[in-house]
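Dear support,

I submitted the protein below through the web form. The confirmation email said the job was done, but the results page showed an empty box. After a refresh the structure appeared. I'm attaching both so you can tell me whether what I see now is the final result or a partial one.
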Amino acid sequence: QVQVVESGGDLVQPGGSLRLSCAASGSISRIYAMGWYRQAPGKQRDLVARIFNGGSTTYADSVKGRFTISRDNAKNTVYLQMNSLKPEDTAVYYCRVDLAIGTPSWGQGTQVTVSS
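What the results page shows now:
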C-alpha cells in the first residue's frame, strides 16, 4: 500500500499565496511522477501540475506562470507553490503518486478556498 497525505490547504484572499505539500509513504518503489489535481464543486477533476522522475514538469494553462511544482526526492514529497491566487482556483486539491510499477495512489485532498 502507498499512503498519500496532502496538507497546506487554507482560506486565502485573492492575490495571495499558499504552498501545498504531499508526502508519500508505504510500499514505495521508484516514483514515475507525482502531481496535483483539483476538483471544484460540479466540475471534473483536472490536472494542475505534474513532475516526472527526470525533473520535467507540466502545468495546466490556467495556472502556468502562477503555480510551481517541486519535489524533495529524499522525503518522497512534492510541493505546489501557488501565487497570485484567484477565486477560480478554489477547489479540493488532490495529490497523485504514480509508481514505475503499480496503480496510481491518491490522497484524500486538501481544501483551498480563495475568497475576500
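Response: this is the final, complete result; the empty box was a page-load delay. The two ends are 40 Å apart (CA to CA).
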